[in-house]
Write a structure and sequence with these properties.
single chain; about 20% strand; globular
Length: about 350
């Protein structure tokens, strides 16, 4: 069922929904970018349509609501372990189609990646619901069409498009029909807007020979990449983390365990006991990241991990393009076939 309503009525509806849900959406933070005179679009709680950044692509992904940068899992003493308290109020998260596809990647890693579901992720996931933000045009560095993440047909409770000043919504979850009927000016079939063409294109190889691991194509990144890890932290599909035990006393018997986001692109990520290090330079780390995004994940789950949002390219201080890296990979694979 589709509905059309004014922005004023949508605000009233959000106010009513706020009694049940917290609203989490991209917000333009003025003067909070990487430089003092630049803005940044990141997620925050909102109460009005005017607070939601609709025109720009968010610089950071939605995933922090499910996998915080630092999350206390439990507290411990000599005698007991206590699970950390969580905010159990349901959340409505506004996100675009590429991020809806990224959510599937997150769910597969944490919930469908073996016999056991990740307990802490599962507990949070049950309280998070999603609102699909339509895309009326492609954004800089996006290549979602080639990655098949440009359109989403399910998984959201309702959609959100601003067309001619009004809100157009396709309601998938029937529990929201009553509140939409209450404030909508018109009932009409609605199809969320989606991108059909990007300026950036990629070609992904179907098969990758083992010889690619020794290819000199990765040497470029030994000097270009500075290992800051920004690409991982803005990526909606990156899921790596490390565990940290924080001790409150010198005896090491009282403290807390935290799950902290990690980055495969920074020093120390592959360090093991005894001084071993599996990927020593940035070229090897870039090789791991690219192959994981467009090959390794596919071997396990049947589809590529990258959704083509382009955030990693946007945020990179060395202007390393993920799309260019994928195309370079495809070119090298073709050359290896002809040798």
């Amino acid at each position: 069922m589709g509905y059309i309503m004014s922005q004023e009525n949508f605000d009233v509806m959000l106010d009513e929904l706020s009694s049940t849900y917290r609203i989490w959406a991209p917000v333009n933070k003025v003067g909070e970018g990487r430089h003092t005179d630049t803005d940044v679009v990141r997620y925050d709680f909102v109460s009005s349509v005017k607070e939601i950044e609709w025109e720009k692509k968010s610089d950071y992904a939605f995933k922090e609501i499910l996998t915080p940068l630092s999350q206390t899992l439990f507290f411990f003493t000599e005698d007991e372990v206590k699970e950390a308290n969580r905010d159990v109020k349901d959340v409505l998260v506004f996100l675009r189609s590429c991020d809806m596809h990224a959510l599937k990647r997150q769910d597969d890693i944490y919930l469908h990646n073996g016999k056991e579901r990740d307990y802490f992720y599962d507990q949070m996931r049950q309280h998070v619901h999603f609102v699909l933000m339509g895309c009326s045009h492609s954004y800089q560095e996006c290549f979602c069409v080639d990655m098949g993440s440009n359109q989403t047909k399910d998984g959201y409770v309702f959609s959100f498009d601003i067309i001619d000043g009004n809100i157009h919504s396709d309601v998938k979850d029937e529990t929201f029909n009553n509140v939409f009927k209450k404030y909508a000016s018109q009932e009409k079939d609605v199809t969320p807007q989606y991108v059909t063409e990007n300026d950036v294109h990629v070609t992904i190889p179907n098969e990758i020979p083992l010889s690619i691991y020794k290819s000199d194509m990765w040497d470029e990144y030994k000097t270009r990449c500075i290992g800051c890890g920004r690409c991982n932290f803005v990526c909606p599909t990156c899921t790596c983390y490390t565990m940290q035990d924080i001790y409150y006393t010198d005896n090491g018997k009282v403290g807390e365990r935290r799950r902290v986001c990690a980055s495969c692109m920074v020093d120390g990520y592959t360090n093991v006991a005894g001084g071993g290090q599996y990927r020593r330079d940035q070229g090897e780390r870039m090789r791991f990241k690219v192959l994981h995004k467009v090959y390794d994940h596919r071997q396990r789950f049947g589809y590529d991990m990258c959704v083509g949002c382009g955030r990693c390219t946007d945020v990179c201080p060395e202007y390393i393009s993920m799309a260019a890296a994928i195309n370079k990979l495809n070119k090298t694979v073709e050359e290896l076939k002809n040798e």
